[in-house]
Task: inverse folding
């Protein structure tokens, strides 16, 4: 089984569906080019990539993980189906608490809300991102693992978007 890599004392596992290289330095142009690539992934390939990511997640050692933060997907941007991660955790790792973000756009903060498959009601914010309408706020220091979808990164792993 694979273990999570430690990063600054916390666990980090970035999600990325493939590698592509574009030699452009302008960050806005990079984001647009990678978003165009992601938007053009056929649905069948999208689900194959999701299955491959889920296979990797299943290989991880979840023994010491108590709380996982999962960012929810912006479907119109063809982001990874992180609901698959929620379903996996519920079925295969029932000891793990799941938290999802709720954004406050006035002060640009994020609250970590405890997610329950049966009782959490999701709405959509102004950017069409699903987020809980209400729920119990969880201290960020309780989070052991965060799944953060990303559009692209540089060769050093720095997130572009």
Result:
């Amino acid at each position: 089984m694979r273990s999570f890599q430690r990063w600054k004392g916390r666990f980090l596992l970035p999600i990325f569906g493939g590698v592509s290289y574009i030699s452009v330095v302008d960050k806005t142009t990079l984001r647009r080019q990678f978003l165009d690539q992601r938007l053009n992934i056929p649905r069948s390939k999208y689900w194959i990539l999701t299955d491959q990511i889920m296979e990797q997640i299943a290989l991880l050692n979840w023994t010491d993980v108590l709380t996982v933060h999962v960012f929810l997907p912006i479907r119109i941007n063809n982001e990874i189906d992180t609901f698959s991660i929620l379903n996996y955790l519920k079925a295969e790792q029932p000891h793990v608490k799941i938290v999802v973000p709720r954004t406050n756009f006035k002060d640009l903060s994020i609250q970590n809300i405890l997610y329950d498959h049966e009782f959490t009601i999701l709405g959509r914010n102004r950017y069409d991102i699903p987020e809980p309408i209400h729920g119990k706020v969880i201290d960020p220091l309780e989070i052991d693992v965060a799944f953060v979808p990303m559009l692209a990164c540089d060769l050093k792993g720095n997130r572009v978007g």
